[in-house]
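Sequence, please.
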């Protein structure tokens, strides 16, 4: 009886007063800085990511470069993904006409002519103004092949390899720092046990050198798949922190939560909307549990956690070649991107790198192309909004928010993260409820508020080629200071970015 009365009262309050939420900011001197590298991207030789994506008619696309510069992409991971463990770097250097043609056995058995290789990738990074993040080949490579690649890239000596780089057009060392030792070694990278991988990691990493004048090599352990906590345990237990800079983790949002990817990227109802959001929010638990294992072996948090593949993975668009993974991107995916970045920001003490999979024309992309046309997806705008958090000091927060119920299940309707930089407090607020606006009160005062809003008419609105974009940024004016608090009215299914001075 008491329970029913409470429920009735809650329902009446919601109808009469609307939904309300509260955010309490807890600025702390010891709070971590949010590494800009949380906003990283990923490009693999897969479908139309590189060829006919970043690289068209044997040239880097300048429109893509400009768009990525605008969102301040801090690092780009390459050449895979699964492709990394079948990639031999010597295939992609020197005169293009002489480069061998291989078969991309992982992604569609297509011919790989290697016209985009090491120098082209580094030119792309230079144009974007981002750091390269290489994934080295453990699955079909050798420690010597990996060691030689690093020497070719980073040595300023007169060694034969360094001279070969000079002959190929780059006199100065490239100064590459992020170095992944394999990719998904538990799966496409060699189907290994964690014990076997740990031994191989130590063998390969022993020969990955830092060259004089180049930055210290950040060696990265190929980490766990989603909830495989044993993988993290075995790696952390057996690899000393001094032998690694970081440990990776891959977590994809799957509709209904299981493999293989299913559901349409644009044609879905509330069922798949809710399922996508719920599985994306699970990142909080996954990151927390892997971090807790890392804390056990590395309480001082010297080792970084790199979520170097994340995003929503649905069925590919109809009519695409097999295994090309071309996927549209809707407002739902933008809400997933913002919620995930909020989770990473709030875990900035451990998560220091993350890479959305993948930047152009594959899975959860920020850019899609069709011939010469280029379209910015809803998720692109999330990275544009949230770039203010890059290298800013985290403001930890707690949220008291209503639930969003669907079909007997619930998730928190609001998530958020906040940081401070250059005298501005920047807050990202996400309202996941598809129909209810939520009034939020934040214990924050100031002299000015500016805001931006990302939303659209439908949960599955998307930006299509040759049409006016349905999902784009707009000014947000529904925030003000009231009774010593900041009050903002969040529209349903929206991301709101506030800057308070
Ligand atoms: O991003 C697509 C694929 O997903 C990557 O190649 C692989 O690492 C992961 O399984």
């Amino acid at each position: 009886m008491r329970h029913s009365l409470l429920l009735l009262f809650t329902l009446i309050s919601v109808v009469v007063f609307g939904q309300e939420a509260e955010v309490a900011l807890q600025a702390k001197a010891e709070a971590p800085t949010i590494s800009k590298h949380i906003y990283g991207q990923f490009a693999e030789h897969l479908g139309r990511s590189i060829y006919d994506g970043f690289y068209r008619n044997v040239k880097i696309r300048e429109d893509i470069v400009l768009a990525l510069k605008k969102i301040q992409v801090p690092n780009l991971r390459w050449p895979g993904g699964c492709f990394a463990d079948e990639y031999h770097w010597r295939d992609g250097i020197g005169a293009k006409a002489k480069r061998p043609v291989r078969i991309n056995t992982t992604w569609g058995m297509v011919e790989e002519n290697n016209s985009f290789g090491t120098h082209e990738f580094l030119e792309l990074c230079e144009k974007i103004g981002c750091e390269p993040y290489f994934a080295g080949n453990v699955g079909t490579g050798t420690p010597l092949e990996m060691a030689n690649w690093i020497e070719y890239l980073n040595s300023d000596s007169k060694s034969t390899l360094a001279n070969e780089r000079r002959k190929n057009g780059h006199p100065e060392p490239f100064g590459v720092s992020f170095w992944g030792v394999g990719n998904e070694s538990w799966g496409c990278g060699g189907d290994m046990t964690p014990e076997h991988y740990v031994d191989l990691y130590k063998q390969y990493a022993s020969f990955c050198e830092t060259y004089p004048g180049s930055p210290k090599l950040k060696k990265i352990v190929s980490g766990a798949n989603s909830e495989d906590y044993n993988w993290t345990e075995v790696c952390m237990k057996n690899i000393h922190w001094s032998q690694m800079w970081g440990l990776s983790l891959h977590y994809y949002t799957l509709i209904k939560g299981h493999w293989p990817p299913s559901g349409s990227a644009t044609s879905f109802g509330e069922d798949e909307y809710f399922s996508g959001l719920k599985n994306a929010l699970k990142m909080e638990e996954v990151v927390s549990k892997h971090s807790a294992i890392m804390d056990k072996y590395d309480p001082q948090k010297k080792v970084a956690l790199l979520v170097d593949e994340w995003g929503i993975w649905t069925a590919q668009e109809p009519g695409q070649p097999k295994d090309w993974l071309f996927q549209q991107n809707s407002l739902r995916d933008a809400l997933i991107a913002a919620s995930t970045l909020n989770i990473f920001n709030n875990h900035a003490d451990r998560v220091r790198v993350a890479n959305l999979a993948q930047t152009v024309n594959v899975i959860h992309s920020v850019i899609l192309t069709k011939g010469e046309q280029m379209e910015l997806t809803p998720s692109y705008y999330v990275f544009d909004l949230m770039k203010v958090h890059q290298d800013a000091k985290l403001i930890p927060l707690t949220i008291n928010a209503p639930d969003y119920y669907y079909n007997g299940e619930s998730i928190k309707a609001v998530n958020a993260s906040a940081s401070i930089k250059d005298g501005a407090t920047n807050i990202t607020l996400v309202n996941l409820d598809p129909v209810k606006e939520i009034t939020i009160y934040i214990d924050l005062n100031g002299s000015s508020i500016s805001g931006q809003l990302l939303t659209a008419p439908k949960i599955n609105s998307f930006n299509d080629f040759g049409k006016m974009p349905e999902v784009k940024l707009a000014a947000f004016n529904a925030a003000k200071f009231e009774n010593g608090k900041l009050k903002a009215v969040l529209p349903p299914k929206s991301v709101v970015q506030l800057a308070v001075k």
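The chain has two domains: 2-30+395-500, 36-392.
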